[in-house]
Design goal:
The protein has about 575 residues and is an alpha/beta fold. The protein has 15 helices and 13 strands. It is about 30% helix and about 15% strand. The strands form three sheets. A nine-stranded mixed β-sheet has the order 1-2-3-5-4-6-7-8-9. The protein has a two-stranded antiparallel ribbon with strand order 10-11. A two-stranded antiparallel ribbon has the order 12-13. Helix 6 links the parallel strand 6 and strand 7.
């Protein structure tokens, strides 16, 4: 008996030692945020996950010798939440991109959420005979008709209030609607994603929009997003019977603003872990204007108050370590912050805790809510009453060329990892604003607990020291990715966003906008000479950014044309 116990204890000790040695030898390392960019195989996040899983499998083998249940694969397939049926309502060829025919597939997924999920409020739900919650949710997928003709990378958008917002930004159009009702322009704007061979998909996740996500257990939406990704990547034999969807190999989850906080919540709460295999469901993630904020839809918001698909007014942003805490399943994470996020969303709490080896972080001198979103530039003043309704020009900064660059380079980064080869087209080094002390705390009437008031241009957080970007002589933020429009400005931005800069509720949006005072003819000519000279200087800076990896070469000509047109318009 003593001999048997000794043997078991030795094997258990060996297991612990093996896993500890794995953690020591295989840290979770991507391209370091502020370190020099690395394309070496040893710095590949996917390589590290494979190495980590190899160690885990070794430990599982040892555990098996003593009858210990392994950490991965502990649940049977029937115990795991899953999509059980895909009802395709429409499948149509929507055009050719670079000679490749693309399909748009739309429909409704049906699935079950099992009691094994960490879904707060699950006990409030109506259950079937097996004790599972049954749901339905709309989806769409736009993809090459034959996958061998595409990149097999799919960008899955976490909808923003039910709309494909980021999809339109990347493609260069503005549009909305549910997967079954949205009508897109001919050619899908620029067609950028599809010209690069990528796919696009989305599935409804928000309560009040998805019929399957209840208000009392909104974490169901996180399960739907995970299992939709699992469905897209699954082999035919792993899918429900009769499913006719292409198999995608690389998945990226992406979102902006509210939907980027969904991405943060999804990753931080562990929903990117495949419940059967233990590895990542989504290989990459993009959180535009996320800066560590999260939604009160599940565990992070489990504070006794009703769940809601928005931030808590005084919720503390996640640290990078809280966002990425699961090396075996964390995605390659891209975080992008706007100037205004430092005033409204307390971005400095997240940014000052960087670098983090798994996060690529970029800061851009643009407003959280960009002017190109609105056909009426007076919207925040006349509709929302921002700044007391005093109408002024809004900052015209267009960050979409830089967003397309990030999308393209993340796809290359993941492709390089998968093929185990070097690539010089992956993500560039992180870029941070220079920060200084934040403005003094606003008066008590500007706190989050009160109504929106004019003059409240900074959103404090009790108990925390916050920072904001320092600015140059033109009131442009120092550091970050230095756009040509920032280095060669055609106007002077306001020192702070529009007021009120709060997050009282889902409609409290004024602090996302940034006013701007355009230069007149005399100042433009004194600074730059002619429009042609301005265009030449602009082009030179854009080419420098392209050399550094922050801008695609093919974006430059159209950017220069727009810059010259803007100059000429103001110089009349």
């Amino acid at each position: 008996m003593m001999t048997i116990m000794t043997t078991i204890m030795m094997k258990m000790t060996t297991t612990t030692t093996t896993m500890n040695e794995c953690r020591r030898r295989v840290p979770h390392v991507g391209n370091s945020a502020r370190a020099l960019p690395s394309r070496r195989r040893a710095a590949s996040p996917r390589w590290h996950r494979r190495a980590w899983l190899t160690c885990a499998l070794l430990a599982v083998t040892i555990q098996g010798a003593v009858g210990v249940r392994p950490a991965f694969g502990a649940l049977e397939a029937d115990d795991v939440s899953r999509i059980t049926k895909v009802n395709v309502t429409d499948r149509a060829v929507i055009g050719r991109f670079e000679g490749v025919p693309y399909l748009r597939i739309r429909g409704i997924v049906e699935g079950v959420v099992t009691p094994h999920e960490e879904v707060v409020g699950f006990d409030t739900l109506p259950l079937d005979l097996e004790g599972n919650y049954v749901y339905m949710s709309e989806f769409e997928l736009i993809t090459p008709r034959r996958q061998r003709r595409g990149s097999r990378t799919v960008f899955v958008e976490a909808e923003n209030r039910g709309n494909p917002e980021l999809f339109g930004w990347i493609q260069g159009f503005i549009g909305g609607g549910s997967p079954l009702s949205a009508v897109y322009p001919q050619g899908f704007g620029t067609g950028f994603l599809f010209d690069e061979g990528h796919s696009y998909a989305r599935v409804q996740w928000q309560t009040g929009i998805s019929p399957g996500v209840p208000a009392t257990a909104q974490g169901v939406g996180l399960v739907i997003q995970r299992d939709f990704g699992r469905l897209l990547a699954a082999r035919k034999k792993e899918r429900p019977r009769g499913v006719r969807l292409p198999r995608l190999r690389r998945l990226v989850l992406m979102g902006d603003s509210q939907s980027s906080w969904n991405v943060n919540t999804f990753v931080a709460e562990g929903f990117n872990r495949d419940p059967l295999e233990g590895g990542p469901v989504y290989d990459g993630a993009i959180a535009l204007n996320g800066v560590g904020n999260w939604l009160a839809i599940n565990q992070l918001g489990d504070d006794g108050r009703p769940q809601e698909p928005y931030v808590r007014p005084n919720g503390t942003p996640l640290s990078p370590q809280e966002l990425l805490s699961r090396p075996e399943s964390d995605p390659v994470f891209v975080s992008i912050g706007a100037f205004t996020d430092y005033f409204r969303l307390r971005a400095s709490l997240f940014a000052r805790a960087l670098p983090h080896p798994g996060i690529h972080h970029y800061e851009w001198a643009y407003p959280h809510a960009s002017l190109f979103l609105f056909s009426d530039p007076t919207f925040p003043f006349t509709t929302k009453g921002c700044d007391g309704g005093d109408v002024r020009p809004l900052n015209p900064m267009d960050m979409r060329p830089y967003l397309r660059t990030i999308v393209s380079r993340l796809a290359h980064e993941l492709e390089a990892d998968l093929k185990d080869r070097e690539s010089d087209e992956g993500l560039p080094p992180s870029a941070f604003f220079e920060l200084g002390p934040a403005p003094g705390d606003p008066p008590p009437e500007c706190s989050e607990s009160t109504a929106s008031l004019p003059g409240c241009t900074f959103n404090p957080l009790p108990g925390y020291e916050l920072h904001t970007p320092t600015v140059d002589a033109d009131d442009q933020p120092r550091g970050g990715v230095r756009f040509p429009e920032v280095a060669l400005p055609l106007g002077r931005p306001e020192a702070t966003p529009l007021s009120h800069t709060g997050t009282l509720d889902i409609g409290d949006l004024c602090g996302n906008f940034w006013a701007w005072d355009p230069f007149g003819r005399e100042e433009l000519l004194a600074r730059y000479g002619s429009a042609e000279e301005y265009g030449d200087a602009f082009e030179e800076l854009a080419e420098d950014l392209a050399d550094e990896g922050y801008l695609l070469e093919e974006e430059i000509d159209s950017m220069v044309d727009r810059a010259i047109a803007q100059f000429e318009s103001q110089a009349k």
